Amino acid sequence: MQKSAQYQLTLAHINDCHSHFEANSLRLDFDYQGQTIPLMADCGGYAAIAAAVKQIRQTRTHPSLFVHAGDCYQGTLYYSVYHGKANWDLMNRMGLDALVLGNHDMDPGNRGTHPLVDSANFPVFAGNCDYSVEADDKPFGLKNHSNLYQYQAELGIARYQLIPFHDTQLAIFGVTLEQMHKVATPDPEARFHDPLAVAQTTIDHLRQRGIRHIVLLSHLGLTQDRELASKLKGASVIVGGHSHSLQGDFSAVGLDQGLVYGDCEIPSERIPVLHAGKFAETLGVAELTMDADGRVIRLAGGNQLLVSSSVTCPESAKYPQAKTAINAFNALPYVVPVSPDLEISQRIAQEYQPALRAMEHEHIAYAPKTWHHTRLPTKSLPQGSELAPMVAHGFYRAARELGHRVDFALHNAGGVRTSLLAGDVSQADIAGRMLPFAIPLVCYQLQAKHLALALEGAINAAINNGVQSTGTGSFPYAYRLGYRYDAKAPAGQRLTQLKLFTEQDRWQVLDPEQWLWGVSSAYTASGKEGYQALQQRKQSLTLPLMMSDSFIQLLQHRSLDTLQVAFELDFNN
Fold this sequence. Notes:
This is Bifunctional metallophosphatase/5'-nucleotidase. This protein is of the alpha/beta class.
C-alpha cells in the first residue's frame, strides 16, 4: 500500500505544572505605543487547558495528542495537603494522553509515585528508569507495572506505546534525568540509564519495525533536549520540560526568554524541541506536518496564554489609554480567550479548594517588612537569602522541641521558593508557596570536616565551580553556622573557615575532628546536589515534621522581628 505523502499531528503539551490547578494571576508588562502598561490576566490553569484541548479535539480532522512533559507534583498547597491525589484525579479528567515522570514526581519515592502510576488513566513514561532489581514483593513496587513505560532491561530499550496514526502507527516513549538520585529521592533500587543512549536504541528498534513517526517525551531540560535533538537519528519531535523554558516571542508582555518555538528552523536535519514554560500558565499547541519517514517538514502554532477572565489594568487612572491597550493585548496572536471546563472547575472548587481556603484565612504571624529570598549572594544581598537562615532556624527549634540535641541547621536555597512578603502571613503562604515541598526533617551526627566538604560541594554545584552543576538551588544556608568560601582555592580546600554559634552566644571556629549534630531536610541530608559528604554521618533520625511545619511552629512562638539570624557568610567568588 502506498503511504501518504504528509502526516499531520496537532500536539498539545504542558510541563512543570507543579500542582498549579487554578488559573495564574499574571502581571504582564504590555508594551503599547512606546509605553509599558501593567496588565493583570488570569492565565492557564487545568480547567482552561482542558477546555482548550477539548476544542482542539473537536475541530481537528487529523490526529491529536495531549502530553505532559513531567513535574506534575509538588509546588502548591494542593500537593502539600492532598499528596498527589488531586493531581492524578484532575489529570485524568483533563484527558491526557501521556506523562513522562519528572524529578519532583519521584520526590516521594515509590510510596508517592506508585499511586500516580496506578491511578492514571493514561500511560506514564520513564523509559531510562530501570526497576529490574526491585524485589517482586516490594511494597509499592514499580517493576513490571503495566502502566509504567520503563526501561526493558532484557532488550536494552524503553518500553513504548504505539497508537494508530493515519495509515501507519505513531510511537511514544519518554526519558527522564539520569542524575535523578542527585536531584530527587526515588527508591534506591531505581537505576537511571543514559537518556541519549536509551533513546537512540529505542528509536533504532522502532524503525527496524517500520515505525517512522516517533514522539519523544523528555524531562531533561532545554539544554539536554538540544543535545538530544542534535545527536539523535530518527525521532520526529521532542517534547520537554524541567527548565521552565517558555518558547516563542513574548517580548510584548514582558515574558520573553529569547527562545524560538520548536528551537530550530523547519525543515531541518535537527529534531524540533517543544517546551511550554511552567505552572500551567501556557498551553503549547504545535501543528506538525511530517513526511513518510517521520521528519517534521512544517511546524506552526506556539505557546498560548489562555485567558479565562477579563483583563484589567490595576493602574488605569495613570494610563488613560488602558482600555485600548487591553483591546490590543487581547488581539495578540498568542492570547486565546477560553471558557474553563465546568466539570474540572467544579471539581477543584468543591473537592479541593475548601481546605486550602481555610488555611489561607488562618493567619499565624505578621511580617513587618519583606524578607527577601535569593539563591545566590548578590551585590545588594551579600549574605544571600534573608529568609533561608530563618527557615533553618525553624528546623533547629523544631528538633530541639522534640528533645533532640542539635548544634546547627542546614538548608539548601532551592528548598525555599518565594520571599516572605510584608503583611499577614497564613499557613497557606508557608506550606503552599514558600515551603511547598512535603519533605521531612532529619537529624544526623557528623564531623566538622565532613560538614565543611558538604558545604564546599554544595557551593561548587551551585556556581558550577569544577563540577557539573545541577542548578543554583544547592547553595547552602544555615542557622548557627558561619563559613568562608574561596572559589579560587584548590578543590577540597575552598571552605577556608567554618565556625559554630555556641550555646554561650559566641562564634567558635570548629576543629575538623569535632562531632556535631545537625538537622536538615531529608533531601539535603541524603547527599543530593553536592552535599555528598553528609553521607559520612554516623547516625540519623527522621523527625515526624515537614519543613513547613517547623517554620509555622517557629512563627507561632516568635514574632518575626525578634528572630535571631545566627548565620555568617564570607563568599569570595
